[in-house]
From TrEMBL:
Pfam families: Bac_luciferase. The keyword Oxidoreductase applies. Gene3D superfamilies: Luciferase-like domain (3.20.20.30). This is LLM class flavin-dependent oxidoreductase. It comes from the Bacteria. Residues 340-367 are annotated as: Disordered. Residues 1-297 form the Luciferase-like domain. It comes from Nocardia callitridis.
Length: 367
C-alpha cells in the first residue's frame, strides 16, 4: 500500500499572523514538501492542477519534472489533471516526457475539475464535462498504446497518422487513476479500462464515496479485470496532528474557521465527526484511517492533504515528521496484516513492466 501527500497549492493568508506567502514562496514550499515527504519515507507526492487564484499549480508536469531532479525514490503524481480542458495530445506527450525524466516514477489522476469558469477559459463548455472526459480519455489511452493513431471525435480536430512523442518509457503507459467527487460515469470509465479509481474522500461524508467505490468495484469485475476486491482504489484524507489532541484542536481551529474551502460553515467538531478530517493525536489519525478499510474495503493508495488553509511551511514539515515517524509505519503494518494475498499492490512502472513481460511469456508459451 502506498502512503503520501497531495497538495492543492492554495495561496492563503495565515489567520494567526496575517502573513500571505508570495506565489514564488508557495511554489517553492511545495517542492520542499515533496522532498520532505521522500525524506520521511512516504511513497507518493501529488499536486493538483488549477488555473485560477488563489491556487498556483497551473503546470503540474513542470513542477513534477523539477521535483524528479531533486528526489530519487518518491512516486510523482497529480491530484488532478484536467482531462476536460487539456488537449489529450498534450497530456500524452507531457507525461511521457516526465516518465523518461523521472525513470518511470510517474502516474496521474484524471479529473473534470470543480471550477466552472475554467471551461470557457480553454474554449470548452462545462455542460460537456462528462462527454469531454470520456472522449478525451479514449484518445489519450490510444495515444500511449498505438504508435500511429487516426482519430475523429466531437471535441477536437481529427488526427491523421499521428505519433505522440516521446513514446512512453519502455513502451509502458503511465498508470491512470480516475478521480471523482460525485460522478458515477467516471467510476464506470475507470472500471471499463481497468484503471484505478481515486475517491477524493474529503469534505463529504464517507457514505457518499462508499457508493462510488462500490459501483467501481462491481463494474471492474463486470469488465473482466479481476474480482471486485482486486480493483485499484485510492483515497484522500485530511489530518492535523500534535502529540496532544487538545493542542492540535486549539492550533488548527483558526485555520479551519478561515479556510476558503470549508471555513464559515459547520464547526470543526461537526466536520471531524462527519467527514474524514482528523484533528488530534497521531494515534487518533491511525485509528480513524484504519476505519477506511472497513468502509471501502482493501485499497492501494492513501494520500493526505496537509499543507492548506494558510498553514506555515514550518508547521507542515512538522506534520510530515509525525506522519512519517509515528503514523505511516503503524498503518503499513496494520493494513498489510489484514489484506488478503490476492489483493494487488498499487501499480508502479516496474510492476506494469513485469506484468507485460509475464503476459508476453504466457502468450509465447501457449502459441
Amino acid at each position: 500500500m502506498q502512503f503520501g501527500v497531495f497538495t492543492v497549492g492554495d495561496v492563503t493568508t495565515d489567520p494567526t499572523t496575517g502573513t500571505t506567502p508570495t506565489e514564488a514562496e508557495r511554489i517553492k514550499a511545495m517542492v520542499t514538501i515533496a522532498q520532505k515527504a521522500e525524506e520521511v519515507g512516504l511513497d507518493v507526492f501529488a499536486t493538483g492542477e488549477h488555473h485560477n487564484p488563489p491556487f498556483v499549480p497551473s503546470s503540474p508536469t513542470t513542477m513534477l519534472g523539477y521535483i524528479a531532479g531533486r528526489t530519487e525514490r518518491i512516486q510523482l503524481s497529480t491530484a488532478t489533471t484536467l482531462i476536460t480542458t487539456n488537449d489529450p495530445v498534450k497530456i500524452a506527450e507531457d507525461f511521457a516526457m516526465l516518465q523518461h525524466l523521472a525513470d518511470g516514477r510517474v502516474d496521474l489522476m484524471l479529473g473534470r475539475g470543480n471550477t466552472g469558469p475554467v471551461y470557457p477559459w480553454f474554449g470548452k463548455d462545462i455542460r460537456d464535462g462528462i462527454p469531454l472526459a470520456i472522449e478525451n480519455y479514449r484518445l489519450l489511452h490510444r495515444l500511449w498504446r498505438e504508435d500511429v493513431v487516426d482519430w475523429e471525435g466531437k471535441f477536437r480536430t481529427p488526427l491523421q497518422s499521428f505519433t505522440s512523442t516521446p513514446r512512453p518509457l519502455d513502451d509502458v503507459a503511465p498508470f491512470v487513476w480516475h478521480g471523482s467527487i460525485r460522478s458515477p460515469e467516471i467510476a464506470e470509465q475507470a472500471a471499463f479500462y481497468g484503471d484505478g479509481f481515486f475517491a477524493n474522500n474529503i469534505f463529504w461524508p464517507k457514505y457518499h464515496f462508499q457508493r462510488l467505490i462500490e459501483l467501481y468495484r462491481r463494474r471492474y469485475e463486470h469488465y473482466g479485470h479481476g474480482k471486485a476486491d482486486q480493483a485499484i482504489v485510492g483515497l484522500g484524507g485530511q489530518v492535523f496532528m500534535r502529540k496532544n489532541s487538545q493542542d492540535a484542536v486549539r492550533e488548527f481551529r483558526p485555520y479551519f474557521d478561515n479556510a476558503p474551502v470549508y471555513g464559515h460553515g459547520p464547526s470543526l467538531e461537526d466536520f471531524t465527526e462527519q467527514t474524514p478530517l482528523t484533528v488530534g493525536s497521531p494515534q487518533q489519525v491511525i485509528d480513524k484511517t484504519l476505519t477506511f478499510r472497513e468502509t471501502f474495503g482493501d485499497y492501494q493508495r492513501q494520500l493526505f492533504l496537509m499543507d492548506h488553509a494558510g498553514l506555515p511551511l514550518r508547521t507542515v514539515l512538522e506534520q510530515l515528521d509525525l506522519l512519517g515517524e509515528e503514523v505511516v509505519p503503524v498503518l503499513r503494518k496494520e493494513f498489510a496484516a489484514k489484506r488478503p494475498a490476492h489483493v494487488p499492490d498499487a501499480p508502479t512502472h516496474a510492476s506494469l513492466l513485469a506484468a507485460r513481460a509475464d503476459n508476453t511469456t504466457e502468450k509465447e508459451r501457449t502459441s
